[in-house]
Every structure is written in structure tokens, then in C-alpha cells.
Amino acid sequence: MTFRLLVTDDLSPDAVAMLEAAPDVEFDVGKGLTPEQLAERIGGYDALLVRSSVRVTPEVIAAASQLQVIGRAGVGVDNIDLPAASERGIVVMNTPGANTVAAAEHTMALLLALCRNLPQATASLRSGKWERKKYKGVEVRGKTLGIIGMGRIGRRVARRSRAFGMEVIAFDPYLSDDRAHEMKIERVGFEELLQRSDFITLHAALTPKTRGMIGKEALAMTKPGVRLVNAARGGLIDEEALIDALNEGRVAGAALDVLTQEPADPDNPLLQMDNVVVTPHLAASTFEAQREVGIQVVQQVLDALRGIDYRNAINMPVVEGHLLKELRPYLALAEHLGSLQTQLADDAITRVEVAVEGDVIDEQVKPLTVAILKGLLEPVPTGSVNYVNAPHVAMDRGIVVSQTSGLHTTDYPNIISCRVEWNGGSRIVAATLFSHDEPRIIDVDGFRVDVKPEGTILVASSHDEPGFIGKVGTMLGELGINIATWRTGRSAPGGRALSFISVDSDVPDDMIAQLATTPPIERITKVRL
Fold first, then answer.
1. Helix %, strand %, coil % of the chain (to 5)
2. What is the pLDDT of residue 460?
3. What percent of the chain has pLDDT over 90?
4. Is 112 helix (H, G, I), strand (E, B) or coil?
5. Is the alpha carbon torsion for 430, 436, 440, 446 positive or negative?
6. What are the angstrom distances between the C-alpha of 181 and each of 169, 175, 185, 186, 421?
7. Bridge-partner residues for 486, per DSSP?
8. In what order do the strands lie in the sheet with 251-256?
């Protein structure tokens, strides 16, 4: 069988040579295509190779009558309509890791350029000035570097920074103390990192949870004179808050490879500030990285077309195609279960045990475990997690994963149960489907419940006392927050209770704090599913 590929952007010569040498491949090159032009051409191709400049819209997907694989030469897939591709059964894969070294080195370049005022001094000298005193810098040796996100890039930045004599601290909810000790760094909380760091560098994925994580409140907690580096995603920093902090002097300087709007608005004040170093999203732009990303995407796409491997597939669970339709709702249920466990855990999860039981899922413990890990790891701001890489990400974080039995505490058919451990605690959650397609959380540490895992939910531990529901309802009602459902499990009447309170809108953090001190609540956590 011969596969037809359409390449829409430049690939390295080595990557092109791989395509030319493949005996079962024919390929065409069409650069600079608009979505309309791509939709006209895509019909006869089995695979599509893109970078960031070409948009794969729902209209393109609809016209792709025989498309099997979309390969993205790079990490971000914002230019590809994932839901449309998934609905059509088209595998979308990216190439994480190919630019890891380039991004880590660029981070160090930004850090040093910021400390020594290199761009400003260069511009001054080229204008005919000799201003040695004006551009006196600072050393990094002996300073504390705070790293937000200890994925592939964060770990390499840590290693390079230690070589410069820096003390490295890191915030990553899934970095265990043992793994931090191995890397000779210190794991700290987010606020402690802000307060202790002389330099802060971001290496987190951009998610709804991480968007604007370095904002007005966070900057107010930083050490005066802190310097920021961001070669990850522009939206991680609230640019208006950063501009204010730079003008006030609380932040001594910033080095940014990414901005909220790209290409950059020429009127962005950050481009005009003397204490800011800016580059146009160059972190992955090295000859070596571009060579590697081209080779990687070609090899991945060819392996997928040949049915050999689907590594770095973003939207494909690890299960045989003919079973996927029946198993799909259980995979989604398992993701919700993992996400709930992460959001309820008191510390970084170090162990995950999974048990399944039932005619439909008895032999599917592996894909269901991967789905749990995907849900468990996705809230963590350290990079994209999919069905292929979730086990590797878990192993990277020092999480021990095992399959077990005997976790089930209820007698529903087709139950997925998950026990997690963290330093000083553990929790068991069980879930099932009602009527084959209605997900439910049915048991949490022995509390029988009936919870639909979707939307914003307040999870409250309390004593079972009269008036509790009315009290909470009144407090939320005063903010215009409507309670959709309230599900409670009790140890006994008047005993301990666990409540799942689904609400129709977000609950502000200050209200969560107020509820936490309201008797009989002992603890309350906001989760999003």
C-alpha cells in the first residue's frame, strides 16, 4: 500500500530525505496554504504534516476524506481543530522533546542577557556611546532561582543553573521530594517560591488554571528586585501587572521570549522598557531543534500510518479501535476520577493503585489506568499529557503506578476504583456508569455518594448537623451562586459527612476561605471537572 502525504511547511533536509527514501510513501509540498486552499487539496491524502502557520479548520477536516494522521512539527496544536479531528477518527500527534535543549539554552541566554544588560549595552554602543557604569550587571552565582514547572525543559534549566552556582527551588505539584533530592533541588510551594526567589523562570503549560498565574497578587508576594524569565507561554504572565511592577521597581527586570499577543503589538509597553529583554519566540529556533523536530514528525507519522506505533498521539487512547466505541465513556469516567483525586490530594501524589471489575472493563485495566493518569496529571502545569505519554510523565514525576484488586466497596457492575497516596495521606474513589453512558462517582473513602463529575463542585467534609445545607445555601445565594445539586454521604446520622455541592458558576477564593471557617465544615475544596 502506498500512503500519500501533504507537507505544508519547510522540513529539514534529513526529514525530506526520510520521506524520499520511504518505499510506501508519495508526498507533495504545498506551502503557505490558506484553510480554503488546504480544504481543496486535502481530499486525496492519508497524512498531513504542518507547523504553526497552517490552520487545520473543521472545514479542512470535513474535506479530508481519507486523512488518517496529522503530524505537527512542534508542540502547540492551537492551529489544529482537535475535536473535529477526533470526531473523524484522525490521529493528531505533536513532537514534544525535540526542542527541549534549545528551549533550556534559550532560557539561560535570556537569564544572562537580563543580568548583564546585553541587548541594551549593544544598542548603546552601536549608537556611539560608551556607557560602562550605566550597564553594571548582577551575578547569578549564589542567587536563588525559582522554577515553575519541572517538566523536560524545567529539569534541564535546573541542571544548567546549578552549574552556574545557583540554588534552585521548584514549584511543581507532581514533583516528589525524593525526585527533587535526586536532582539536588528543593521542592517548595508556589507562595514560598515567590517569596524566596531572586530569579523566577516559567516552564508551565498554558491552561485555564495557569493563565495569568503571575499576576498582581503573585507579584506582590515576590522578593523586591526579583527578575522574571518566560520562554514558555505568554499568557502565564499578566502583562499589565508586570508592567506596573516593573515601573514600581518591585520587579527589577524581565526577559520574555513569549507575549500574550503574537506577533507582538508594536505599541506594547514591554517593548519600550529598558529593563526588559524581549525575543520573538525564538526558544525552539535552532538548526539542531528544527532538524530534530522534522525527523521526529516524519518518523512518527510513518509509524502511525503503518500501524507500528502512535507515540505522542494527543487524541488517541491506547486501546484497539474496535473496542474504543464501547470503552470510550469509561475512559472519560476514568479521566474524571483521576482529576478528582489530584484536586482533592493534600500533597504531591506518590502512588496510584487502580482496580477494575465488570464484564465490560475487566480486561481493560491498562487503558483505564492510562486514562486515570491522564486525568490525574492534566491539572498539573508542566506540559501536555495524553494517552501515550501519561505513564512516562507519571514515572518522570516519581509516581508509582500499580494495578490491584479489592478496592471496590460497592456492588455496582463495571466499577473503576483508584487509591492514591501522598505524604501523610491517601484516598480511595470509586466510579461507574449508569445506563452505560452516565458517569457517577459512587464512593469516596467509604462514603456512599451519587455525584455526576462535571462542572464546578465544592467538596466539603463536615459533621452531619441540622441547618448545614441552609447555611451554605444562604452564603452562596448572597453572591448569586446557584446550587445545582447537593449529594451527601454519611457515616451515620449525626456522624461524619462528605458533601459534593455542584454550582452553576464559579465560587471566589475568598468565599471558599469563608466557608472553610464556617461550622460544621472541617474542610472544603473547589474542584473543576
1. 35, 25, 40
2. 95
3. 77
4. helix
5. negative
6. 11, 10, 6, 7, 19
7. 501
8. 186-187, 167-171, 144-148, 199-202, 226-230, 251-256, 276-278
Reading across the β-sheet that carries 425-434, which strands appear in turn?
400-403, 349-357, 415-422, 425-434, 438-444, 447-451
pLDDT digits (tens, 9 = 90+) for 204-262: 988 888 999 999 999 999 999 999 999 998 999 999 999 999 999 999 999 999 999 98
- Rounded CA-CA distance 4/45 in Å is 5
Kindly report the CA angle at 63 between 62 and 65, in degrees rounded to 5?
A: 95
All three cell numbers of 125, joined, read 554602543
Residues in the chain with pLDDT values less than 70: 317-325, 379-384, 388, 406-410
Query: What is d(CA 141, CA 149) in angstroms, rounded to the nearest whole number?
Result: 22
* Residue in 104, 169, 376, 206 with CA at minimum distance from that of residue 214: 206
- What pLDDT is attached to residue 141? 98
Map grid coordinates 484497539 to a residue: 320
Q: How far apart are CA 15 and CA 21, in angstroms?
A: 10
Query: Which among 168, 147, 153, 91 is positioned nearest to 383, based on CA atoms?
Result: 153
Question: Hey, what amino acid is at 397?
Answer: R
Q: How many CA atoms lie within 13 A of 483 on its CB side?
A: 18
Cβ atoms within 10 Å, residue 360: 16
Query: How far is residue 193's CA from residue 170's CA, in Å, rounded to a whole number?
Result: 7
Extract the C-alpha cell encoding 397: 514525576
Q: Nine-digit cell at 204?
A: 508551565
Angle (deg, nearest 10), helices 100-116 and 118-126:
60
362: Cα separation from own chain's centroid: 30
The candidate with the shortest Cα–Cα distance to 303, out of 137, 509, 95, 507, is: 95
pLDDT value for 195? 98
d(CA 292, CA 95): 9
Cell 459527612 found at: 497
Phi-psi label, residue 357: left if phi above 0, alpha if psi -120 to 50, beta otherwise: beta
This prediction has a pTM of 0.70
**How many CB atoms neighbour CB 142 within 10 A?**
10
Query: What 8-state DSSP symbol labels residue 482?
Result: P
Report the amino acid identity of residue 342.
Answer: T
DSSP of 6-43, one letter per residue? EE-S---HHHHHHHHH-TTEEEEE--S--HHHHHHHGG
The catalytic site residues sit at: 233, 262, 281
Q: C-alpha angle 75/79/81, rounded to 5°?
A: 110
